[in-house]
Amino acid sequence: MRQRTVYLVFWIMLMVLSIMGFILIDLCTVKPSQISGNGNIAILFTIPTVLFYLLFLFNFVRWFLEVAHDFTLKQRLILLITLFITFIVLIFLEINFVQNLLDLLGGGPEDPESRIYQFGWYNQYTNTLFFNWITFCMGIVFSIFTALGFRNLKKQLTASIH
């Protein structure tokens, strides 16, 4: 029981650190209406945030594998359909988010009229294209898909051995 509590606290800490990293990146991203003169400060938070987020997702998969162990076929099917619909909605939200930001910036890095002309896609104005609540949720949904896939693969391997 103590080990489960420690594991849960560790998982919650990773989640909080990931969310804080996403927020810090957002706060350090230059708004399209402002002019940046200091470079991409948010890059300082990017690597730790990615590490915390990947650890969080990995542990989320481990936790979900334990939880999903007792799911019936009907429950798994409902979950898969819900996840698929959620993922499609998140994709549309992300596309809309990207288009809105690019409109505010005057185009992408290849457009001479753009504020980010010749900057590349990851810069002080576009950090939030990659680190936002939508991509955070996409990672969680993808992790659940992964956990369900691992669970089914493990079941098939176990069945083929016996």
Task: Produce the secondary structure layout.
Blueprint: H1 2-28, H2 43-67, H3 73-105, H4 127-130, H5 133-161
Helix pairs in contact: 1-2, 2-5, 3-5
What does this structure look like?
Helix content is 73%, strand content 0%. The protein is elongated, with a radius of gyration of 20 Å. It has one domain. The protein has helices spanning 2-28, 43-67, 73-105, 127-130, 133-161. α1 runs antiparallel to α2 (43-67) and α3 runs antiparallel to α5. The two termini are 32 Å apart. Keywords: Membrane, Transmembrane, Transmembrane helix. The chain crosses the membrane at residues 7-25, 41-65, 77-98, 130-150.
Total beta-strand segments: 0
- Overall spatial form: elongated
Number of helices: 5
The overall number of domains is 1
Beta-strand content estimate: under 5%
SSE string, helices as H and strands as E = HHHHH
Estimate the mean pLDDT confidence. 90
Keywords: Membrane, Transmembrane, Transmembrane helix
